[in-house]
## 1
Amino acid sequence: MMPAPSRSALIDALAWQVELGVTEAIGDVPVDRTALPDRAPWLPAPPGRNPAGPAATAPTRVAPARPAPPPAPAPDVDTVEAAEAAATGARTIDALRAAMEAFPHCALRQGARQLVFADGRPGARLMIVGEAPGREEDETGLPFVGRAGRLLDLMFAPVGLSRTAPDLERALYITNILPWRPPQNRDPRPDEIAMMKPFLARHVELARPDLLIAMGNISCQALLGRRGITRLRGTWTEALGLPCLPMFHPAYLLRNPAAKREAWADVLEAAARLEAR
Ligand code: URA
């Protein structure tokens, strides 16, 4: 008989499943796992149970399968050039999304469940650029839907700006530097940022906002080539040919609530600039 796995091995196995995208540990129908000797070889099947009975075939609910991967990338490709060519070829936002879906060179896509492209209203006057999807974004395919995203929505609501506003004057359009979740939410690497930046630049061109917000350090690094959000925040600068306001990332605000005062000042600043134009 095989020895039972240790507690830490079971926890590792569970963490791995979460990484793969399993979101439910509970099936729709109870499963008698003691009647599944093949699944749990260390558990003796109780006498009198029929392993081929209905419980053995009971469906379990797991997250939807990942989309089929694009063709394997060719070796020795200049990935930034490949991204530039793919991005430039996109004439619409939908075409850009399709080009990113088909882009095979970013290894992050292997560990992500799906592309997280954008949310809100293309054409909105204010476009927010975040860093990279986290777990909830990877699950839903939408940027900023976890705790940090809920805070982002709460920050802009008092000045009448939201991703669902019917009026483009009051709408937000939101994307990230990277469209795939980095493993364990690690920081994006410079080569990943460089590879995906042509897509971001084209995205901004096609969405045609008046103003950009660079949310957090990674976004500042990608858009401005600078880090140091504490110094940069609150001062307008230029990125991709547009006025750009660096702001604290809402995830930082969740960890450092005292910084919300400055973040609120930046929201007011962005709203005032929209009014002024
Ligand atoms: N943080 C980001 O920068 N982007 C998201 O989409 C979610 C969290």
## 2
Amino acid sequence: MARTKSVKHIFVTGGVVSSLGKGILSASLGALLKEQGLRITIQKFDPYINVDPGTMSPYQHGEVYVTDDGAETDLDLGYYERFLDVSTSQANNVTMGRIYKNVIDKERRGDYLGATVQVVPHVIDEIKMRMMELAESGKYDVVITEIGGTVGDIESQPFLEAMRQLKLHLGPKNAMNIHLTLVPYIKSASELKTKPTQHSVRLLLEIGVQPDVLVCRSEKALSKEIKHKIGLFCNLSDTDVVGLRDAETIYEVPLLLHEEKLDAMVLRKLGMKSNSQVDLSSWEEFSHKVKFPKDGTLRIALVGKYTEYPDAYKSIFEAFVHAGAANDVKVLVKLMRSEDVEDGKMTMEEAMRDVAGVLVAPGFGHRGIEGKIQMIKYVREHNIPFFGICLGMQCAVIEFARHKCGLEGANSTEFQKRTKHPVIDMMESQKSVKEKGGTMRLGSYPCVIAEGTKAFEAYRKLLITERHRHRFEVNNAYREILQQHGLVFSGLSPDGELVEMIEIPSHRWFVGVQFHPELKSRVHSVHPLFNAFVAEAKKLRDEKISRESPKEAIEA
Ligand code: GLN
């Protein structure tokens, strides 16, 4: 097994353009090194000034990923957890805002008394300290540090300078830089172009960093000649240039990188032994299932308000990939704007015609709420599998209160401050909260599951923990009437005070959760609720097929 006394550092940077997939590269490399028997963690450094992404709109930043310890973080941490099957924490995501905040707090405390506090050395030193924090925990053999932004951006310069100093300080066998670039294919010339990569590496060289490995994204595989050319102009041997062609699924990326021998190369450069017999069969099986499911496709509506921007629901999409693989189907997620139903742009029948299940998404604010409530009414009355997450569950409770309990005007005080029946209300502990950043009910909390429920059927456990991010909850004053009309509170906080899960036993699968199960679905352990929801949707799909065209169903 490859293990050395000192912790090894891999810095992953990106060049040419953004969105090349540094997060997926880091997660995939981490997964490969984990298969080598190493203890791995991945941390992300983001260049923006927000202390964390919790206060940003999903349009700006995509999903906010919440860790067990309640940190609101970048969605790349979701990839790290899904690929490595380990939990991350606040220490795994550091923004420039947090760095500056620490430096300024220290200055106010008097830690730098007498000094002029400057980017060099104070800010850089703070970054370096943060970059070494997880390594010092003694829990890891290798720390992968993903540096957000694109090389050449003004704002990520201090991170790159900190990386340069750490590389120098730690020495070549202990630290390395992998630079991810793009090699575009120009159709009219039928050629892959290396110039953007050369320029990007030049930018790194200007600040004193020679990348140790280049990973080049491209539409087509890189030929030997292209690798040689890139190596020649970027000061690297041909073998240090790795091609990464576009994959059909991100879950194939570890396999593609292994084919290119990235793992062996990294270990060699870090002076570690590599096991050439490493077993990647679980990844092969998983990506095969994702690409070629035996039981066809299945469409599920994801009802939300950020539908133009799927990154806002990243973990939900991935959880559906995992649940699809577990059920041997490809889940096609149909993003649906709840406002379209509200505005009458779509009738409910049109909206629901081709779907086998409906997930109402998490979210904030009143926009699109009435459309969500109408959709929930429809799926409840038409026995279509329903899964409500956080805001989605709250909308289900409002719908049930209005249409089953006769509580006209029932609402959440989030959408209507003065409401006749506040069935969803702000948690007591939230009422005194003034600051917006990091003050929701965040992170992992236990939940007790009632036996004989769909929730228990899925989890097969009485006590679970799930992650939360919300300020509102089911109002206990309405529990009795909701229960009397057939709503079951299948999951409660251990003290019984907070409703964490609801369901309707007479419905085929109608489950709402106050927490975010999507954050805990992983490649090698699908989330039980997503698994059960997709299984039920698959049943409905098959029933529909046999009703509509019995012959095909039999043949299938
Ligand atoms: N806005 C709701 C709340 O704060 C739901 C939040 C969510 O969906 N994450 O309680």
